[in-house]
Amino acid sequence: MKRQFIFLFIVIVNQANCQNKFDSLFLNSPSESINKIKLEFNDDYGNKTFLPLTFIKGKDKGIVFTILAGVHGAEYAPIIATQKLIKKFEVKRLSGTIIILPITNIGAFYSSTPYVNPIDNLNINRIFPGNKNGSVSEKIAHFIATKIIPVSDVFLDAHSGDANEDLLPFVCYYDNQNYPFQTKKAKELSEYSGFENVISYPYTIKNSEPALYAFKQATQVGKIALSFESGKLGYLQPKAVDRILRGYYRIFDKLEMYEYNDLEDKTKFKRLNSPYYIKSKFQGILYSKYKAGEKVLKNRELGFITDEFGKIIERYFATKSGTILYMKGTPPVNIGDTVFSISPN
After folding, report:
1. Given 3-state DSSP classes, what are the helix, strand and coil percentages for the chain, each rounded to the nearest 5?
2. What is the distance between the alpha carbons of residues 308 and 25, in angstroms, rounded to a whole number?
3. Which listed CATH number (3.50.50.60, 3.40.50.1000, 3.40.50.300, 3.40.630.10) goes with 7-270?
4. Class of residue 116 by CB neighbours under 10 A (exposed 0-12, middle 13-18, buried 19+)
5. Which stretches within 121-231 are classed as H helix?
6. Residue 186 in 3-state DSSP?
7. Pick the CATH number of 275-344 from 2.60.40.10, 3.40.50.150, 3.10.350.10, 2.40.50.100
8. Of 21, 76, 122, 255, which one has the fewest beta carbons inside 10 Å?
9. Which regions in the chain score pLDDT beneath 70?
C-alpha cells in the first residue's frame, strides 16, 4: 500500500478561527502527515504577531509529545535544534503524534530581544496560563495552556541561556507529588535524555495559583513535563544544538515513539540540587572572575557591580558552597536581575 504524506500550509487570521482551525486539523488530519500552520494573533492595542506550529502524525495513534522552543526569542540553540528535527524527521517511523512550536516568541526572535516580546513588553514564560482577552503574548500563552497542553501527554520546554546568560547545560523537572506517576516518568525521561546534569525543582504552588512558566503549567495540570537548558550568551554553539537534538531523539526512543540508534549511548549524568538565586538590588555594571559550571565556596565573593563611574555599589557572596548553574554573562545588571544561580552541594 502506498504511503501518503500530506503537507498543509495554512494561515489563520482570526483569533477565534485560529483555535477552532487547530482543533479541527489536529483531530481530522490523517495518519502519516505533516501539518504546518501559522496562527495569527492580534489584540485590542493594535498589536499583531503569529505563532508557527507543526504537528506530525505517525502511522498509528499513541503518545502526543509537544516540544516548545523559542519562548525566549534570543535562546537560539533549541530553536535551531528544533528546525533540524523538522527537516530530518521521517514520518513513516513515527508512532503517535509530535506537536512542535519551533519559535514561540517571533517578536523577540526577529528583534534579538532577550526575555520579553518587544511587541507588548511581556515575558511569555512568566504569564501562564495567559489571558484570552489580553495582549498578544497573553493570548499566545492562553492558546498553549488551553489548546496545546491539554492534548499533550508529554510536554518538553526547550531553553538555553539567554543573550546575557552564561549557563551549565541541564535538564530539569518539578517534583509534583500531586501526580506521582507523571513525576516519576519526568524523572526517568530526564535521566535518559543524555544531558550531563539533572535537577529536580520543588513544586510548591497550589492548583489555584498561576503557574507562570510554560512547563510548570503542564506540570500543574498533570502532564509529564520537563525542560532542557543548553546553550548560552546569544550565539550558536553547535554542541549545544546537538545536545538538544540528541535529547529529543533519545526521549522519543525511550517512549517507543521513534527508534533511534544513539552512537554515543552516553547515559551517565550527575544529579544537582535545586538552586538558590542571588539577585541584584541595584542597577550597575558586573565584574566577576567566575563562569557557569565552576565551583564556589560558602561566603566567597563572587563578584560586584559598579555604577557608571566605576564605584562599587554591591558585592555578591555565595551563601552556600556549590556549582554555578547560570549567571549574568554580560556586564549590564538591572534591579531584580538574577546575577547568580547556584546549585548547592
Report:
1. 25, 30, 40
2. 55
3. 3.40.630.10
4. buried
5. 136-143, 149-151, 180-192, 214-220
6. helix
7. 2.40.50.100
8. 21
9. 1-20
- What is the per-residue pLDDT for 51? 97
Please enumerate in sequence order all residues whose Cβ is within 8 A of that of 184, keeping only pairs 6 or more positions apart, or say none: none
Residue ranges per structural domain of the chain: 7-270, 275-344
Query: What does the longest C-alpha to C-alpha distance in the chain come to?
Result: 75
Is the CB of residue 306 less than 8 Å from the CB of residue 312?
yes
Helix residue ranges per DSSP H, the chain = 15-28, 76-88, 106-111, 136-143, 149-151, 180-192, 214-220, 238-254
How confident is the model at residue 200, as a pLDDT?
98
* DSSP symbols for 44-101: TTS-EEEEEEEEEE-SS---EEEEEE-SSTT-HHHHHHHHHHHHH--GGG--SEEEEE
Q: What is the pTM of this model?
A: 0.93
64-69 and 154-159 strand pairing: parallel
Q: What is the Cα–Cα distance from 214 to 220, expressed in whole angstroms? A: 10
Question: What is the Cα–Cα distance from 64 to 87, expressed in whole angstroms?
Answer: 19
